[in-house]
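re: ur question from yesterday

yeah so i grabbed the chain u mentioned. its 124 aa long if i counted rite. heres the sequnce exactly as i have it in my notes:
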Amino acid sequence: LYRKSLSIVPTMDALCKLGIIHSMQGTVDSAQYYLNAAVAHDSTNPQAYYYLGLHYAYIEVHDNAIYNLELSLKYYPEPQYARSIHYNLGKLYIEIGGLDKAKQHLLEAGVTYKDVPKILERIQ
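ran it thru and got these structure tokens back, copy pasting raw so excuse formatting
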């Protein structure tokens, strides 16, 4: 369905959805193709960067994941979406040993995520 819609009118939403599907299926090259195409389609849309960041986190390319999630945060003005980005950034910074930045992002994520207090306690 999404591929068919792309052949008619390429949309950022369809590109992101195809990228997510391929990421979940483990077809890394296809996921990156569609998610990068979403970024190229609208370079100020935070969703494209968010999903590309999550994809890179999933395949454990931490630097690219952090870069794209930070860009997503730059373009997402709504706090309810920013919390999810902060949460994912916090967990990524823990993975690479950036505990100060991890704490900062996890505090920004707040109590929206029930495991944040336990994570913060563990990294203190």
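noticed a couple things. The mean pLDDT is 89. also The chain has eight helices and no strands.
anyway ttyl
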